[in-house]
Amino acid sequence: MEEDNEDIADKIIGVIKTIYDPEIPIDIYELGLIYDIFTNEDKDIKILMTLTSPNCPVAETLPVEVEEKVKSIDEVNNVEVEITFDPPWDKNLISEEGQLELGML
């Protein structure tokens, strides 16, 4: 059963990597906006994410886009996206790949 969850997690990450922050030209996964992805045996998904700031211009639409795209995966049952600002996002959360894309390394 664990392999199924890993397979689904990989698919979820793949879908999330198609979503971009409008202000920073890398996907939200590499940007470090996804804090955690939880999957239960019923294939219910909970995604804990943040935004670059509480005043982010896509605060209303980005979580909805994450939810809708993850729901489009056949194996997924329900999706809940929770926004948190604890800890607040900062540029240190950008992955090494993201930092390379942004010319930070």
UniProtKB/TrEMBL annotation:
PANTHER family: FE-S PROTEIN MATURATION AUXILIARY FACTOR YITW (PTHR42831:SF1)
Pfam name, any one: FeS_assembly_P
Name of the protein described by the UniProt record: FeS assembly SUF system protein
Superkingdom of this protein's organism: Eukaryota
MIP18 family-like domain residues: 10-81
Family annotation (Gene3D superfamilies): Fe-S cluster assembly (FSCA) (3.30.300.130)
